[in-house]
Amino acid sequence: MGIYLNPGNDLFSGTALNSEIYVDKTMMIEFTNSCLFGENKHICVSRPRRFGKSIAENMLVAYYSKGCDSDELFSRFKISKAPDYKKHLNQYNVIHVDIQKFLSRTKSIQELLDFMQKRILKEMRRTFSSVDPDETSLITVLEDLHSETEERFIFIIDEWDCIFRIYKNDGAAQKVYLDFLRDLLKGQPYVALAYMTGILPIKKYGEHSALNMFDEYSMTNQRQLAEFTGFTEAEVESLCVKYNVKLEEVKQWYDGYNVSGIPTYNPRSVVSALMSHVFDNYWSQTESYEALKVYIRRNENGLRDKIIQMIGGEHIPVNTKKFQNDMCTFESADDVLTLLIHLGYLTYDFDTKTAWIPNAEVRQEFVNSISDTVEYKKVSQAIEQSDRLLNYTLKQDAERVAEMITEVHNDNVSVIRYNDENSLACVLTLAYYSAQDTYAVYRELHGGEGFADLVFVPRRGNSNPAMIVELKWDKNAGVALEQIKDRRYIKCLKDYQGTVLFVGINYDKKTKKHACQFETFEK
Questions:
Q1: How many C-beta atoms surround the C-beta of residue 417 within 10 A?
Q2: Which one of 345, 361, 367, 480 counts the least CB within 10 Å of its CB?
Q3: DSSP designation for 214
Q4: Per DSSP, which regions of 85-132 are E strands?
Q5: pTM attached to this predicted model
Q6: Looking at the structure, do residues 492 and 406 belong to the same domain, yes or no?
Q7: Count of domains for the chain
Q8: Using the 8-state DSSP alphabet, how is residue 218 labeled?
Q9: Count of beta carbons in the 10 Å neighbourhood of residue 328
Q10: Residues in CB range of 54: below 8 A, 6 or more apart
Q11: What pLDDT digit, counting tens, does each position of 83-141 carry?
Q12: Residue 437 to residues 315, 431, 433, 467, Cα–Cα distance (Å)
């Protein structure tokens, strides 16, 4: 058993057996088994930080490595029922490296590559007696070894893209690194499987878009790995029952990622919330919001307006195809938004080609990032005043509510194009932003004979009434109230009992003002 060559299963067993919460994702192994030796044996998986990349790698090491016997470990998990489970269990030479760790111990890319090869070759000489003791090239040793013994290797590489985050402006260093990976892994008969993970997809670098033999599984399209990217709703629902936590609250805070059509929860945050029974921004605490601020303060092609629309709940079209897969080449708003998708600040629907802020946790991160920036001053003011607007609404002060909503509209007229109720819903989400602290807020919630525009359901400890808001454009607030009643939107509050406040809001295009009416209902 080595550190880099044929490691043991300690890292995975520590996670799977010693963690109070472990969600069984071992069926991912069935997919990687199907890729062994074939044309799709090169796999590059990119996910945001704390989305389980290292756990998955440690699982693959434990399953494939000749350096351990993992049958007892995996026998309790789903993969043990797969037909080929025993066929591949601990049958391969595995080389496992974390590029970030080598980077932190060296001062240049070449020094990193030399040091990494030295460490791996030291272990290979102990395992294979035929390895030339004076050879310093890992690629040469692997080629010679395969020609003599037909040995094949599985390569598992963590943080493969850290080079492009640390040396993001050093094109020469990037080229050296990409050339090494290409020569090590492309067209080599000794490769049984290559599995790389990072935050960014593979860097496009001229002719070195280099590692074009890899199949990519990114946050814009995880394909067959979608269900293994985070926690699925079924997995979270089961955990909520076990830990006596309401699914709806977990959903509001940590759901919202669309991964190839599968609703996906942030795994780090779900675990933290279930363990503590406290809902907070756990994922965002792993990195300063300053990192997000750097990108959203840019304004390529109206980026600022698109960010504001997304804070207001909108889904924005994004062309992800031109992104250069780095953190410094931005030629359009789409490039910045695509980077935010890969970093986990946005989620993306492959079918509709749209992106949005996934949940309350991440939305708060955006609000933190714009709070002291000149570029977003008007939006920040609207959010800061949203407590007052909510209080006026609960008091049914129609005049003050209409005035404040009109002010938010006028301050952001360049962003919110008023031509329908959907645009009005965007500005209302901004205007009532603070309500999310005490309410679960839903847009287009199905109930009765249609979809209510905005629904506010009180969270635990909130004794204020629920609210159903209907929005109209160039009609009147009374028509909005009648629609709430005629279409029986009250049915969307299935599990709620108590006072419900109906709120009708209309925008008059001629006067450029809003009007508001209220009515209460006991459910």
A1: 11
A2: 367
A3: P
A4: 93-98
A5: 0.89
A6: yes
A7: 3
A8: B
A9: 10
A10: 158, 197
A11: 999 999 999 999 999 999 999 999 999 999 999 999 999 999 999 999 999 999 999 99
A12: 22, 14, 8, 15
Q: CB of 142 within 8 A of CB of 153?
A: yes
Q: Is residue 424 part of a domain?
A: yes
DSSP of 311-346: HTT--EE---TT--SSSS---SHHHHHHHHHHHTSS
Question: What are the structure tokens assigned to 406, written together?
Answer: 């009109």
- For 228-238, b/e burial (b = at least 16 CB within 10 A) is bbbbbeebbee
Contact between 228 and 28 (Cβ < 8 Å) = yes
Tokens of 480: 């909005």
Side chain identity at residue 103, one-letter code: L
How many residues make up the chain in this entry?
523
SS3 assignment, position 279:
coil
Give pLDDT tens digits for 142-163: 999 999 999 999 999 999 999 9
Residue 377 is assigned to a structural domain of this protein: no
Distance CA 317, CA 244 (A): 38
Q: Domain for residue 375, yes or no?
A: no
Helix (H) or strand (E) holding 109: helix 109-127
Transcribe 337-363 into DSSP letters. HHHHHHHTSSEEETTTTEEE--SHHHH
Q: Are residues 101 and 248 in the same domain?
A: no
